[in-house]
Design goal:
Blueprint (H helix, E strand, L loop, with lengths): L10 H4 L17 E2 L5 E6 L10 E7 L4 E2 L2 E3 L2 E13 L2 E4 L3 E4 L3 E3 L2 E2 L4 E8 L30
Antiparallel strand pairs: 1-2, 2-3, 3-11, 4-10, 5-9, 6-7, 6-8, 6-10, 6-11
Length: 152
């Protein structure tokens, strides 16, 4: 903001009717095992206290990992931070951004060398379906693929 410009509102005034930004760092979040045996660092996720928070974080897929074709009712955006992966008939590389409107399916994904993806899953504006955190990103042990719900 230029030095001679005066703000028309203050943070205190804005805070009376609007929520302040929440800032967190991925390295402060303990890695968890996610549904397709990848590692996740969930920076934000829905909770009883904050049910409208998106699932937002970093997914790390190790060499030789991936997931099968599956469906979701919520929307999401990915940004490939490192590595590459085959996704349908494409190869996603560092710098690619992928948008998936609701409802959507995700192609089968596989990575030979590993990849890291920043992702945001949010309530679908069409379906109203919220992203799912519990039982997806906070596994206690490596989950079995056959136990995963590929329809939601």
């Amino acid at each position: 903001m230029p030095n001679d410009a005066k703000p028309t509102i203050t943070p205190e005034e804005a805070g009376k009717t609007h929520n302040a930004p929440i800032i967190r760092r991925p390295e402060t979040m303990a890695p968890e095992v996610a549904r397709f045996a990848n590692e996740s660092q969930m920076i934000f996720h829905p909770s009883p206290e904050n049910p409208t928070e998106p699932n937002a974080g970093i997914l790390t897929y190790g060499p030789g990992s991936g997931f099968p074709l599956h469906k979701h009712d919520f929307a999401q955006v990915w940004y490939v931070l490192e590595g590459e992966c085959s996704y349908g008939d494409r190869t996603l590389i560092t710098g690619d951004m992928v948008y998936m409107q609701d409802p959507h399916f995700e192609y089968e994904m596989h990575t030979e060398e590993g990849c890291k993806i920043l992702f945001v899953q949010y309530s679908g504006p069409t379906t109203g379906a919220a992203p799912i955190y519990d039982g997806r990103f906070n596994q206690k042990q490596k989950p079995k693929l056959e136990d995963q719900d590929l329809e939601h």
